[in-house]
Amino acid sequence: MVKHILFWALKPEKKQDVEEIVTELNWKFQNMQPQIKGLLKAEVGANYNGGEFDFALYTEFVDRVSETAYQGHPEHVKIKEYIKAITVGKVCVDYEC
After folding, report:
1. Which CATH number is 26's domain given?
2. Which residue, 49, 59, 77, 82, has most beta carbons within 10 Å?
C-alpha cells in the first residue's frame, strides 16, 4: 500500500475560504475516486492547529503503479491546477507500508 500526503498553504487572500475550499476539494476527490483504479481513499481536511499549512490531502493507493496513474489522470490534473492557483506552498510525503 502507498500513502500520499500533502499539506498546502493558501494565498493570504484565500485563507478565510479554507472551509469552502476543503468542502469543494472533498467533493472533487470523491467524484474522481471511482475513476482511478487502485485509489482506495482520498480525503481533504482543514488544519485547525494553526501553523504554516492550511489544509491537507490524505490518499491511499494499492501500489505505486496506481499512484503514478493517478498523477497523470485528467481529473487529477484539473484539481492540481486549481490548487496551484490558490496556494503558495506545499509539502508532499509518499511512503509504502
Report:
1. 3.30.70.100
2. 59
Q: Burial code of 71-87, b = ≥16 C-beta within 10 A, e = fewer? A: eebeebeebeeebeeeb
pLDDT digits (tens, 9 = 90+) for 68-97: 999 999 999 999 999 999 999 999 999 999
Q: Using CA atoms, how far apart are residues 54 and 6, in angstroms rounded to an integer?
A: 11
Q: Residue type at 34?
A: P
Q: Residue 21 sits in which domain range?
A: 2-52+63-96
Closest-CA residue to 82 (of 15, 10, 34): 10
How many domains does the chain contain in total?
1
Residue 51 is classified by DSSP as: S
Among candidates 5, 4, 8, which has minimal Cα distance to 89? 8
